[in-house]
Write the structure tokens for this entry.
Amino acid sequence: MISQSPSLEFTPLAFGEDLVPIPAYKRAGTTEIDLNQLLGDLFPPQHQPLLLHEDVGKGCGGQLWPAGMVLMKQMLRYHQDTLKNARILELGAGGGLVGLAVAKEYAVDGSTIITDQECMLELMSQNVVLNKLESRVSSLILNWGEPLPKEVIEQKPNVILAADCVYHEAAFAPLISTLEELLELCNDAVIYFCFKYRRRADRGFMMGAKKKFEIDEIEDEDRKIFSRESLFLYSFRRKG
């Protein structure tokens, strides 16, 4: 491993050791993520770990957080066939954990774009190189609420990944606007969305999202573990 809904009363950031350690702000460094230990020997014994450089120097998105680990495990455990030829886009990627993991393991015939704000671009690009994924993964700046980059419009992603993107209340409306635009690019696109309820204001995001999208909670064998910590997994699709 790394060196139905509960009450919406919120607890401090915490996570059971049986799923992933509690993250703490730490010095910059590179983490090896053994996916076989996390996922129970899903991959061959000599499987190479995912490498992720972490650096919070330009924002807290520069390190691993539980929602990203939950979403990564969900995608690797349950979506192998979907991902093989998928056009994948990750929003608010930070260091790129989820997008890099699915590109490394399954998305061999598709394309993957990991995105975040400009301050995260160098870190995302560094992690693409660390995992030798330059031929399959590109990193881009994508600011929510602003016009989509032409690369994303041309890609027309059909698998959209978002982990821990519900954080600042001021970003709720721009995020929903960007999700709407992305779903307009491809009628059968699915957004896989994992986030932690941290405060009562976070309900406002879900209320806004439910007006725009068809939303379903996703089943996961670790659900009883992560739901105790107010972490939730959803799929978003176009209405109608």
